Amino acid sequence: MGNILIIDDDVQVCETMQSLISRTDHESDSAFNISQAMDRLALKSYDLVFLDISLPDGNGLDSLSRIKESNGHPEVIILTGKGDPDGAELAIQGGAWDFLVKPSSIKQLTLSINRAMEFRREKQAKGECVVLNLKDVVGSSEEIKKCYHQLSNAAGSEANTLITGETGTGKELFARTIHDNSSRSVNNFVIVDCASLTDTLVESTLFGHKKGSFTGAQSDRKGLVPLADKGTLFLDEVGEMPLSVQKSFLRVLQERTYRPVGDNKEYNSDFRLISATNRDLDAMVERGEFRQDLLYRIKTIHIFLPALKERVSDIKELALFHLERLTRRYGVPEKEIDPEYFEMLYSYDWPGNVRELFNAIEQSFVATGSGNTIYPMHLPYEIRIEAVKTDIEKRNAISATNSINNLKDNTVKNIGNNSAVSGSGGLSSSDPISEVLSGTLPSLKKFKGIAEKRYLMELQKRYDGDVASILETSGLSRSHFYALLKKHGISQ
């Protein structure tokens, strides 16, 4: 028997669902809005949640991650009256078990409930709470927690795994962590730097060669593929692998056999493959730069690592972790950290991600010398400059937004008032956009954001939240509209 929560503002839907659920030998509760649902989830553990999208106090999809991370980590089935393909895409990407459209048949609902509950039982039986060795992997944000779940799946299987993400997000670290938590951890973790492979030496590097097989081959050499036997072969920057090599490597991947250069015999290598790249392999396939059949082979499990700017809440934890490591390495007493130091770390975008953060922290650490406290001034000057610029832009944007909000009522009152319109019909100084432009100018990016938010607020006001009319007028897709509301913190 399981516990199921129905989140829907339609009382009749809740009653019908509860009646159906009682016939499946499960217990159920109802909540008529997100706030009430979160209260119930905090007090009771649920196995499954039916979630509507359009709720009185917000969009159900915006609360999907919070629901999945709540007490009991329930599975979620979206049950909505609006069959929007974009909404379905967002739901599935967010981890929803299924996406159903009202009215759904009793058979379809029952089947979805049974499958979701069976999946949950199997997941619990596998003991998902096995403790992973995350020695150097740091972070507790929702974004990185999703990666830990995928890491656990990869470590518990032999499936080929592809790790993608921007440069410096920790792809090699994740690959090593998968290896260290797998059944192959006692054997070799062999790195192949695909960016350094050349057409002339690639086969020798990967498969080895026999003495005298080419000029300079003065002795037998073992390749990286045989070195990875019973262990893990890590293809770093696999997107840089030459096309001429991809075909021969595909055969090795399929058959797990290889032939050293100059040898007429084939050998076996039982390796597990993990690949990583910062490039868009799907786009490369479209351009004919990467073999589609190879991409299918290396991408059985896909782990995408978010950029550091998308997991800002992890910055302090990462910084403290690296500072502790530096303290041990240099054998010095622990240093204090000025609170403003972290504020400056938060203000920077970190295009080089975790790698750049660690480098900046080490520079700060060294710059303190024999001092006991790390201050913002110890950061590299280029980071301090960018952080200060970003902070100023944010302040200007907030000031501009406040100006618009303060002038909103006055602007409405002045419509039709001759004193608010010049003789030529132009805008007066009371126009909100004119007011923004008359003060300290924000950046173009920030100004566009201000105008975008104002436009969305006006859409909401004019159509009283009628999404269909809003989408028709704005030309936005439903998923894009919801994403913009979330971006600007506007409630639906």
Residue share in helix: 40-55%
Low-confidence stretches: 411-430
CATH fold descriptor of the largest domain = Rossmann fold
Distance between the amino and carboxyl termini: 36 Å
In CATH, the homologous superfamily of the largest domain goes by the name P-loop containing nucleotide triphosphate hydrolases
Q: What's the architecture of the largest domain, going by CATH?
A: 3-Layer(aba) Sandwich
The CATH class of the largest domain: Alpha Beta
Overview of the molecule:
- The chain has 492 residues and is an alpha/beta fold.
- The protein has 4 domains: 3-125, Rossmann fold (3-Layer(aba) Sandwich); 143-306, Rossmann fold, CATH 3.40.50.300; 309-379, Helicase, Ruva Protein, domain 3 (Orthogonal Bundle), CATH 1.10.8.60; 443-492.
- The chain contains 20 helices and 18 strands.
- It has helices spanning 11-22, 34-43, 64-68, 85-93, 106-125, 142-155, 171-180, 202-207, 224-227, 243-255, 281-286, 292-298, 315-330, 339-347, 353-367, 381-414, 432-438, 444-463, 467-474, 478-488; strands spanning 3-7, 27-31, 48-51, 54-55, 58-59, 75-80, 98-101, 161-164, 189-193, 208-209, 221-222, 232-236, 257-258, 267-268, 272-277, 301-304, 336-337, 373-374.
- The strands form 6 sheets. The protein has a 5-stranded parallel sheet with strand order 2-1-3-6-7, sandwiched between helices. A 5-stranded parallel sheet has the order 9-12-15-8-16. A two-stranded antiparallel ribbon has the order 4-5.
- α1 links the parallel β1 (3-7) and β2.
- α16 runs parallel beside α18 (444-463).
- The longest helix has 34 residues, at 381-414.
- The chain is globular.
